[in-house]
Every structure is written in C-alpha cells, then in structure tokens.
Design a protein that fits this description.
Length: about 450
C-alpha cells in the first residue's frame, strides 16, 4: 500500500487564484520564449501583427490564431528546409519524436531533457493519484519507439519507486503475469480485453491475478466498455489522455473526470466556429498551449494548438482527492464524429450500444461499422458488424434490441430518422476473427464512412 498521495503537493493543491496567477505568469513567459526561439512563432506573431507583450493572461490567447497539425506539417521538412517549430539548438535536443502519422506525414517533436522531466512529472502525478506507489510493478503495453508516452511513463516510475515491465504491446506471454506478479497494466480497452481472454484460455482468471489496477488511454471509449473491462479484471480502470503534444491528463482515485496539469498545459475549449470559449459544462473543441516555467527551455512548444478532440470542462472546484486542477470529460475525436440528417454521433455512441451488459453474454466487444448512402439521396444506411463469442449461441434479437435502445437513448433525433426510414441500421454477426479490420494494418477503424 502506498502512503504517498501527491507528487508535488504545493502545485497540485494550489488554490484557484494562485494557480490562475501561475498560469498567467507562464503564458507570458511561454509566448515570449516562442517569439525569441521558435522560427514559426516569430513569423506568426509578426504576420498577425501581434506584439507578444500584449499577451498578459490566458484569456488573451483568444486573440491569437489557432494552429493545427497541418500547420506543423507545413512548417517542417519536406515542406520547408528547416523545422520551424524547433525552439532550441541541437545541443539541447535530447530526443526526437514523431506522431503516428495516421493523418499524413508524422509531426516531429523535439524534447530537451527538461521536457522529459516535465512529461514524466505529469505521469508521476497521475500514477500517484491512482494509488500507485513504491513496490508496484506495471506492465506498459503502450508502444515505445518514436512515441513519447511509454518512454516518459517509464521515467515517471523511477521516482515513484515503481518497477516497469516495458513490453510495449499487450501480446506478451501470460507467464509475465504469473512470474513477475505485476500490480498494474497500461494499455487500451480492447487490448486488455483480448489479453483477459488469452489468460482465461490458459486457465488464469484475470480477476484472480496479481493485477490491482488498469490504466487505459490512447483513444476514447464508452463508459460501458470500461465497466465491462473493470468487471472482467475485478479492479478499477483509470483513464489517461496523453499525446506527443504534451497533454497527459489523468483520472485520479475518484474516477470522475481527468485532471489537467494546469501548470504545464493550458487547455481552452472553443465553440464549433473556433471563435469563442464555451462555458464550463459545454462541449467544445479542445485547444492546448504549452506552459513553461519561467526560465525554462523547450524543444517544441505549441500555442493555441487545435487537438481536433472535443471535451467538456467538468469542474474547476477542488476534487475529493485534494487536487485543485480542473477536470475534463474523456475527450472524443472529432474525426470519429459522423453526421446523419443533421445529427452528429461519435464512434463512442456505437460502442455504448455494443457494450450493453446483457450483450456481453454473447459478444466479444469487437465491432466495426460502415455508413453507406441508400437508394434515395437522403437515405443513410449504417451496417454494424459484431463479433460473437459463438455465433451459434448468440441471441441476435436481444443484442439488436439492446443496441438500438442505447443508441437512440443518446441520439433521439436519429430514432425519428430511423422511424421515417431515412436512416437504417443493419446488423451483421460474425464469428471470432472475421471482422474486416483484422485484415487491415494498424489501428482498427471502427467506423468507416463510405457515403
Ligand atoms: Zn481528483
């Protein structure tokens, strides 16, 4: 049992006013640092006729333009001769990282050793807030390599007194569990479900294993999927939201929202037109700004960066865990939001329908779906393919009914379209290993828009 509750108590429990002052101080310093050290930002300020000294507080960030992943790609080789976002000399660059490149040429990120320490500090706070402490042994299934997450998580463990088993993926042999008796695993929902199935086949019930906590991240998920994972493993499942851009938010012991490390990253939530901030409690696009401590150097910093994820600020009140840093909802990818007859829905809304508890008597949880145009111009057809544990023993009607009930409960406008027959949902049940995405490389595409 761990007795350490905080990594940096002074910062993590700082009162709101003091924390806001610290944020403003770091906004000012970061903006000035960017102007002096980042070729991209120098030109950006000049081009937009903004004097960096006019940016005095986090609210002033609203007056600056927003940049995107494409902005980074357009300002690095091969598009330009130089990495315009790199903001230190090579002598200060400790490592170079790249994003996965699923949406084009990978974005390059440069990290100084201090950047590593700051990234690790964010993970340290999250792990500690989840109850990890000295003596814990954690299998990291997040990928090492060019991705920054797994690497800096590993560094975080050093100061916690935690041991890391750096498998890099969830396909490790079951003996790793029985031999080292790890107390936690970092992975994603589906990989941890598959691992649980593999363990069961080898006679080890996940809930009887040494695992006391699971940490998931990498993509958004339905709460129903988390609940099911938690039931199978017989332990808590904590969410994290990390990215190479440096977010690293995480759920604490309370499991009701992810704490944003506000002293290291500033997060604004914008309306759909990207013109104004939305109120707390309202859904919008999350836009991040790196915050540097006064005097610090940074390899790559971002100001007003559109994460292309949507989220909601849940609260800025002090949490029951004692931390004062704001909490956000599990972000969802904008790219996984689809529109049917003027109503948006996300992949997560489909996932909810799949993971209805009764369905899990018949399904593995693996699914994929496709959107097609119908015969009529206005008609949309959604085909949902569900993988059955055993197609011969699946009660199709029960699964369909549960799915539709859940899906329409969250998207009532689509129920009307369904009744009007302008939106059809077709179900397809498959045996294990028969979904289309198994034949594709890379991260499974759960919703494919073929309209
Ligand atoms: Zn908390």
């Amino acid at each position: 049992m761990s007795e350490i509750k905080y990594t940096n108590q002074e910062i993590e429990m700082m009162g709101r006013n003091e924390l806001d002052e610290l944020v403003d101080e770091r906004v000012k310093y970061t903006v000035n640092y960017a102007y002096k050290n980042s070729p991209f930002y120098r030109k950006w300020f000049d081009r937009n006729s903004i004097n960096p000294s006019d940016i005095q507080s986090h609210e002033d960030l609203l007056h600056l333009p927003i940049i995107s992943g494409d902005t980074i790609r357009h300002n690095q080789p091969p598009e330009t001769n130089y990495f315009e976002f790199k903001s230190v000399g090579w002598e200060d660059v400790f490592t170079v990282h790249e994003t996965s490149g699923t949406s084009g040429v990978p974005k390059s990120f440069f990290l100084t050793w201090k950047d590593w320490e700051r990234f690790a500090e964010k993970y340290k706070r999250t792990f500690t807030s989840q109850g990890f402490g000295p003596g814990d042994r954690v299998v990291v299934c997040a990928s090492y390599g060019m991705n920054v997450g797994a690497n800096t998580m590993t560094l975080a463990a050093r100061d916690i007194g935690m041991s890391i088993i750096p498998e890099g993926k969830c396909t490790f042999p079951v003996r790793v569990i029985t031999s080292y008796e790890p107390t936690g695993i970092v992975g994603n929902v589906f990989k941890l479900l598959r691992l649980a199935n593999r363990m069961k086949k080898e006679g080890l019930e996940p809930s009887d294993s040494s695992i006391e906590r699971l940490v998931v991240g990498g993509e958004s998920f339905a709460e129903e999927a988390r609940d099911y994972l938690s039931e199978i493993w017989g332990c808590n499942v904590f969410n994290t939201y990390g990215s190479t851009e440096g977010t690293m938010c995480g759920e604490c012991s309370e499991i009701n929202g992810l704490h944003v490390p506000e002293d290291f990253v500033h997060l604004d939530v914008y309306d759909p037109n990207m013109k104004e901030f939305v109120n707390d409690g309202e859904c919008g696009r999350s836009v991040l700004t790196t915050l540097l401590p006064v005097g610090a150097k940074c390899g790559t910093l971002l100001i007003n960066y559109d994460t292309e994820d949507t989220t909601i600020v849940r609260t800025r009140q002090k949490c029951s865990c004692g931390r004062t840093h704001m909490k956000i909802d599990n972000p969802q990818r904008e790219a996984e939001t689809f529109w049917v007859r003027g109503t948006p829905f996300n992949r997560v809304d489909i996932e909810r329908g799949v993971f209805q508890r009764e369905n899990m008597e018949y399904l593995t949880g693996e699914y994929e779906s496709f959107l097609y145009s119908g015969n009529d111009e206005d008609e949309t057809i959604m085909r949902v393919s569900l993988e059955c544990i055993d197609p011969k023993k699946c009660d199709y009607e029960v699964v369909k009914e549960n799915f539709l009930k859940s899906f329409f409960h969250h998207k009532p406008a689509l129920e009307q379209a369904y009744l009007d027959e302008t939106f059809s949902i077709i179900f397809n049940f498959t045996g294990p290993g028969e979904l289309e995405f198994y034949r594709m490389k890379g991260r499974p595409k759960r919703v494919v828009d073929r309209r």
